[in-house]
Design brief:
mainly alpha; 1 helix; binds zinc ion
Length: 76
């Protein structure tokens, strides 16, 4: 997961996310080919992500707020 929360295509072999999308969908790092299964997977993930984002937008609540890490629990 990247910071924006959007799903990314990751390599099955080395786990990297540096696919060369211009060179026939092969992993930039280890050269493993992206399978049709991989592509279907990421496409589905992206579709679900877009739908969830749209739903959140429509409900007006946006994404759930992240935990608040700004409080301090220091001993007094
Ligand atoms: Zn790889």
């Amino acid at each position: 997961m990247n910071p924006s929360g959007a799903p990314e295509l990751a390599c099955d072999q080395c786990g990297c996310r540096w696919f060369d999308r211009t060179g026939g969908n092969a992993c930039y790092e280890c050269g493993a080919e992206v399978t049709a299964e991989n592509l279907a997977e990421i496409e589905q993930a992206l579709t679900q992500f877009a739908a969830a984002r749209q739903a959140a937008k429509n409900s007006g609540s946006g994404f759930p707020a992240p935990p608040d890490h700004h409080f301090h629990l220091e001993p007094s």
